[in-house]
Each structure stands twice: as structure tokens, then as C-alpha cells.
Amino acid sequence: MAESSEPAILEDYLLAEDAPLLEEMAEEDEEIDLYNEMTFGLDRDSMEEEVAKAPAPPDKGPELSLVGENEAAVVAEVAVEEEEYKATEQPGLGAEEEQPMLEEMEEAGEEGEAEPGARHDDFADMEEEIGVDEREEEEEEEEEEEEEEEGEEEEQHEEDNEEQNDLGDPAVMRAVHSKPTLESLDSAVLDSRIGSTWGEFEGNDLMAADSGAWTSSPSSILSHHMLERGYLGSPGLKRPDFRMMSPKSFPQRFMRQQSPMMPRSMGSPRPYTPPRRASPLFTPNQSSGYVSPTPFRPMSRNISTPTQPLAMHFGPMSPSLEPPLFFSPPAGCQLKFSVPSHMTQLHPQHQRILNQRQQRGQVQSISPKKAWSPKADPYSGLMTRKEKDWVIKVQMMQLQSENPHLEDYYYQAYYHRLERKQAEEELLGGRNKQEPPKLVTPYIQKMEIYDSVVRIAGSLGQVAVSTCYSPRRAIDAVHHALQEEAAGNQRLRALHRIEKMFLQLLEVEETQRKMSLLPEEQHPRFREKKSHEVGRIYQALKIRACDSEEEAEDEFLQVLCVRKGKKLTARLLPHLAREQAEEILVTVTRHLPFLMRKDALDESLPVLYGPLSEMVGRMTFSELIEVLQELTRPLAGSTELPLTMTFKNQFGISLLYALLSHGERLLSSDMPLEPHSGDFEKWTDTVFLVARELSQVPKTALVEPLFLPSNLLSLFCRYLDKQTIHRLEAKMECSPLPSEAAMPC
Amino acid sequence: RAGTKSVPVRLRGPGPLAAAGLKLPHAARAAAAGMLFYSFFKSLVGKDVVVELKNDLSICGTLHSVDQYLNIKLTDISVTDPEKYPHMLSVKNCFIRGSVVRYVQLPADEVDTQLLQDAARKEALQQKQ
Fold it and tell me: Do B32 and A438 touch (CB under 8 A)?
């Protein structure tokens, strides 16, 4: 049907709801006005007027024949087109203007649940008198629209309906003829609209007039329509008021119907023609709103059919829901229950919020298994590529730095390490080089620095120059390092010192790194700088000889008592000069019992093992003997040897083994040892001592070392008898020697 | 879960801004100083993390990107307590504003604590200067 001019206007207005939410906001004022008018201005008189009009358009009934349903007759009475997804012409729906207004009000309405409810009650009362329930009419209209749209599908679905009947909820048939209960007219109940729809058909005298035209299974058809309206698969819907059907059965039915319905709907795609939208009757201020719906049109072509019923169903809300509905398959109607029916007057803002929620819900309901819906996103494309790039550029501006290595230190270092590791792996394994993604933060080469304080010779004070790049420095606040030495807490002081040294160490490492990047010629300069720095740190460590009584006060030992200090020392050792490193080793060995005692809780001594063992590996024989002497010297005040104490400590025993192993290596090698006088005796004495102590200590008391050198047994073999060796072997859990015959003992 | 990308990914857009000759205002320049955790999270891109928000929602996902505000984008997410947050069932990717994050649980072997400590020391030094 061609849209009559009058309804067109209304339609245009109503179509405003169709526009995307953004457009809705533009219309909101108008809606609010209308709503207010409706809410507060409408009274019974006007209603009666509407009612009076109701019987008017029954003549349009025949026009509805294309709907092919009895409802057409009923619908014909409905003056107001619900508009929206009128895929087909709404015959005579526009006849009544007031009703559209009413509907519209409902669309734009606020949550006046009480009011609509009251109205419904009123209508219900009136119904008896007038025989027409306006609301019902409206609902009928909507229904009609939907039905009309579904006209094509109806035929197809008739079979289904038949099935339905067969499956047959007897309640369906029965319900059709029951009177609309108050319950059904309740707006909350009418959320589903099914109730209302049914009610319309029943309580309407006009309907009764056409009741003769009812087909044998009007209920099934109706239910069919309802299905099409998109109550598909809505188990969660609160539909206490399916007067026609039991609420439970209805959803079930829907579910059953859903899948077959959908494909069929798609099968007969009714080209979506929203001609009304493009109507030239659009009011200027609304025209903009209509621009956006048009892009939806082509898309809707394909998916409109299944969604149309949904749209229809929503009645007043459908306009606003339309776009999203187009993009979301009817599966989304599960959420319909959350949307009040057109009977409920919602404030435009509330309406919008609900629509948004619906959209989201629909999108979500589409992809319960996280299969992202391929349907278009109504919020996509809000920003163009250029705009996005611009925003990103602004963000990146903040990240500019002139020294990315410093400011982005963690990532840069991490990435370098990763690259190195991968290069190694690539060399070893010959694997394909997997390029780890490098996240680049832009950096600029140079920054202009403005000196904010300008000192002019001969002037009093300073002239402050302030620019946007460097604001004025109000006061010359210089941070003076607090003298925490007076803090009194040894540990804190030690920690403070350690942190200072750490910074120096980091500088050293930085110099090292720079050196490695630069060509050879510049290395000496860096090396000098580095050794200078290292020397400073070494001085700061304050390593000096101290007696066992002073151990607690010795600053270096204090540093070593703290885990951080151990880490610092361990990291520093590779950079130290030989003598310096040796000094540290000697000190550590000398005070090993003290350190082991202090490390009982932390157990962080092993961190020193690596660098120290490397150090040991470079020692000369004499130096080794010196160090070993430290271990064999009995502790002051007791006969216990530090040696014995090392057995109980992982680091201690590891260090001992490392020393012994190195000695053995030196001895078994052909290198000239250049021993000092008495070295060999001391050596053999030490070995015997160790062997004796080892054999005496119970196995359970022996701690497993970090690393067990393989040449220890051969060392013992030199000096000891077989029996002892076997015992030691068992105790130390060494791997047995390859052949005993080879052993000299 | 998705592993690391094999294609070099640029975290953000435009080319070297030096060419544009943009001068950074002082405040923005200072902002670059607090880059430690941004740098840290950049190294975790592509790894699986669990983000706990201040509203007690815990989201497990692959770290897709991070920015200087520590806003986080996660892909292929799953909520650790799906029954409590059914609305998250269908969400695949998400953007989390940095200010609402309470914790980020990381894979321990992806973190170099020594490097992190060094970075923290350097940053502290930088801020003091």
C-alpha cells in the first residue's frame, strides 16, 4: 500500500526511531514533547475519539488480504501503522492519527509502567464499552505489520503451524478465545507482546466481526507470527501471560521453530524496502536522521527478513532497534524480555539505553561460542583511518625520548638478549630464525633544551626565563644526599652503600656495553674509564683484613651479609682486576664460617659461587694453597676447622671442591707449577685432612654441592688407599672411576 | 593459547616524528621518564597473563598491546570465574583501562628480575637528576 500522506508524516516521525541511536538523540526533544503530551495531556476523550475511529477502517480489511490472515481484518482496524519495518504497505493503518501518536508516545515514553498499566486497565474497561482496546489495536498494528512482512513466510510456515497444532498445546486453541485478562494487559507482562497480541484478537469486537474469517488454526498462525516476531529461542523470557499458551510450552515451541524458521526466512528474502524512510516528506530536521538508515538498507536486504519480525515485534521500540536488529540474527530475541513492550512508555533516554543493551545483547547472543559474528558492527567506522592515526600520533608524541636505551631500558635490554639467544640457537640448532616482534617506540634524535635560569653577569639574583618547554624554576632546590650513616642501623647503612655501588656498577656495565659497540681504537679509553670506575667501587667496598672478632663490624662483610650485597659482588667480580678479585676470594674464604652463619636464612651465597669458581680456575698453585690455608686454620677459640663447617653448607662445600679440583687439575697438568717452598706439603696435608674429615662426617650431614668436580676421586687416589677411596666415593656420591687398574693406589 | 607473533609488530603508528620537528613540551617530556612498566609490559606482549581488576574480575588472555598509561588489550580472553560473569562468555577481545587494574599475573620465566631491578635503579637515578 502506498503510504498515505498523513500516515507518512507520522511515519516519518516514527521512522525517526529507526535512525541509529545517534540520530535518536536528535529526535529526543521532540519525542519528549510528544511523550509528555501523551503522558499528561491525553485523556479519555481523546481515547474515545481514537476508539471511535477504530471501526472506521475496517473497510481496509480487504487490503490486508495479502497478509492472508484473518488478522488482516483485525489489523485493518488498526489505524496507526506501527511503521517501522513495514515491508509491506500497511493498509489503512495510518487512518488514525491519534493512535500513532499514542504509539509514538509509547515509543518515546518513559518508564511509566504504572501509567501504561493504568491505561491498559482503562482500556480494558473501555473495551467492554467501546469494544476496542486501543493498545490492542496498536499492538495489532504492529502485529499486522509484522504479519504483513511475514506474509510470504506465513504461507511457508503454515505447515509449521500445522505441526504446531499437532504437537498441540491445547492451551493454544483455547487461549485464543479467552478474554483478555487484566494480567495480559499489564505492561510488564506485555513485554513479550505475545500476550497483548493474543489479547487483541480476542477482546476486540472488531476482531469478532471478522472472526468468521478466522482460519481453522488462527492460534497457530498467530503463534507462528509470534515466532516470526522473534520470540525464538527465548526460554528465559518471562511470559507469564501467554494466555493462549502456557508459558513453558511457548518458548519450547519457539525453540523448536527457531532453526527451521530462520533458514526459511532467509530463503524468501523480501527485499527490504523502507520507502518511507526515503520519503520526501521527511521533515528537515529529521532528514539527517534518515540519511544513516539508508546505508543499512543494502545490508538489510539480505538479513532483513528474519529480523523484520523482530523489529515488528518491538513495536514502539522497533524503530530504534531496527538497525541493530538488521545486524543481528533473530537469535538475539532472547533478550526481548528485557525490553518492555510498546505498552510501556519509556523516556527516550531510557529507550536508548535499552536499545543499546539490546544491541549488545544481541551481538553477544549471536556468538555464545565466541565465534565472532560477521555481521556489521553499528559502531564500526566511527573514526577514519586518518583520525585513528592522528590520535595514535598524539599518544606517541608523549613517548618520544632522546635516549630510548635509557628510558626504555628494560625492553631494549630484554630484546637484545632475546636476539642474542636466538642467534645462538640459530647457530646451534640451525632453526629458522623466528623474529620476535619488536615494538618500536619512536625516538627523536635531539631535543632542544631551554635553560630556564639565565644568569646575567653583575645582576642581583637570577633572571628566570620560562618557556613552555621548560617552565620557570621557582627555587633552586638541590637535592642533597641525606647522611644516613647516622641512621644507626647497620643493615640500613649497608643497604644504602650497596645501592650507591650498584649505580656505579650499572655505569660500569653501561661503559662496557658502549665499548663493545664502538670500534677498536676507542676501546682503551673506555677501558680506562671502566677500570677507574671499578676501582672506585672496590674502594667503596672497603675490603680489609680483619680479625674474627671484628667481623660483625667489617663493612665489606656487612655488605656480604646482605643478599643484595652478594649479588653486587658477584656481578662486580668479572670486572675486577685479578688482584682485587683474589682479595675478595681470600676474604670470603677467611670469613667463610661467619658468612655461612649469616646466610643460614637467606641461602643466597650460591650466587657467589659462579664468579668465585671462575676466579679459582685462574689461580696459581701458590695462591690456591694460600686460600686453602684459610680453610684449614682452626677457628679461634675452638678446634673446629672451617673445613668441617663447609660440609654443612652448600656454598662452602662447593667452594671446597672447586679449590681441590683446581689443584688436582694443576697437578695433573704438565704446566710448571712454580710452587713456593712447602706448598706441596701443605697441599698433601690439606688433601689428607679433607679426606679424613669427609670420612668421619656422616653421610646425612653432607650437603650436596652445587657442582661436583669429576677429578676429585683421582685426586684422592693419589694419596689414599683404595678402601678409603671407596668410602669417600660412596659418601660423595661420585661417579666411579673408569678403571681401577689405572689408579696408582 | 596464542603464542608470540611471528611478524614484527609495530606497537604504534606513525613514522619517525623527528622529521616533523615536533618539540615536546616539558610536561610531556617528563612523562617519558616513567616508562619502566610500559617498557616491561612491552616485553610481555604475546604472553599469557591474568589481569585482575579492581572490581574483582579476573581476565585471562594473551597480551596484545600496552600503552604508556598501561592500558591493556587482551585477545582470546576467558574469565577465570565464568559463572560469576556470564556476560563475558562471548567476549573475545577486550581493552582494559590501566587505572582499573589491580594485579597482572605474569609468567615467571618471562621476567628477568635482575634486568627489572637495573631498570628501576636507572629510572630512580634519572628521576633524581
Answer: no
Rg (Cα) of chain A, in Å, rounded?
46
Q: At CA B127, angle to CA B125 and CA B129, rounded to 5?
A: 75
User: Any idea what DSSP says for residue A40?
Assistant: I
B73: which 3 cell numbers?
588489550
What does DSSP assign to residue A37?
I
Q: Which domains can be identified in chain B, with CATH numbers?
A: 12-42 (no CATH), 45-118 (2.30.30.100)
Which candidate from A369, A370, A434 shows the least CB-CB separation from B6?
A434
Q: Is residue A327 predicted with pLDDT exceeding 70?
A: no
All residues of chain B having their beta carbon less than 8 Å from the beta carbon of residue A370 are 89-92
Q: Contact, A201 vs A222, CB < 8 A? A: yes
CA distances (Å), origin A71, targets A78, A134, A149, A235: 10, 16, 13, 26
pLDDT value at residue B117: 92
The pTM for the full model equals 0.51
In angstroms, what separates the C-alpha of B105 from chain A's closest C-alpha? 18
Could you read off the pLDDT of B20-46 as tens digits, one per residue?
Answer: 334 444 444 445 567 889 989 988 999
Tell me which residue of A666, A668, A723, A669 sits closest to A691, measured CA to CA. Answer: A723
**How many CB atoms are closer than 10 A to CB A560?**
27
**Which among A725, A720, A719, A724 is positioned nearest to A737, based on CA atoms?**
A725
Q: What is the ipTM of this complex?
A: 0.75
Closest Cβ opposite residue A503 in set B38, B68, B125? B125
Q: What is the Cα Rg of chain B in Å?
A: 17
* Residue in this structure with the C-alpha cell 613552555, named with its chain if needed: A468
Q: Which three cell numbers stand for residue A531?
A: 677500570
pLDDT, tens digit, 9 for 90 and up, residues B95-129: 999 999 999 999 999 898 999 999 999 888 888 77
Q: What does the block give as the cell for B103? A: 594485579
User: Shortest CB distance from A408 goes to which of B14, B39, B121?
Assistant: B39
∠ CA(B119), CA(A599), CA(B125), 5° rounding? 20
d(CA A573, CA A566): 11
Tallying the residues shown for chain B, one arrives at: 129
Reported as type and span, the H/E element at residue A310 is helix A293-313
Q: How far is CA A138 from the centre of its chain?
A: 45
Residue (of B119, B127, B63, B73) closest to A414 by Cα position: B119
pLDDT in tens, A21-76: 556 566 666 766 676 666 665 554 544 444 444 444 444 444 444 444 444 434 43
Q: Chain B window 51-90: which residues touch A at a Cβ cutoff of 8 Å?
A: 67-68, 87, 89-90
CA-based nearest residue in chain B for residue A364: B90
Query: Which residue is closest to B129 within chain A, CA to CA?
Result: A479
Residue A689: what residue type?
A: L
Residues of A in contact with B29 (CB under 8 A): 400, 447, 469
Q: Other C-beta atoms within 10 Å of A571: how many?
A: 18
| A603 Ramachandran zone, left/alpha/beta (phi>0; psi -120 to 50) | left
Residue A227 and residue A310: Cα distance in Å, rounded?
9
Q: Are A411 and A402 in contact (CB under 8 A)?
A: no
What is the pLDDT, as a whole number, of residue A734? Answer: 63
Query: Is-contact A679 A622, C-beta < 8 A?
Result: yes
Bridge partners of B60, per DSSP, are B50, B78
Work out the end-to-end distance of chain A between its first and last CA atoms, rounded to an integer number of angstroms.
116
* Residue A557 pLDDT greater than 80, yes or no: yes
Give the pairing type, strands B72-79 and B94-96.
antiparallel
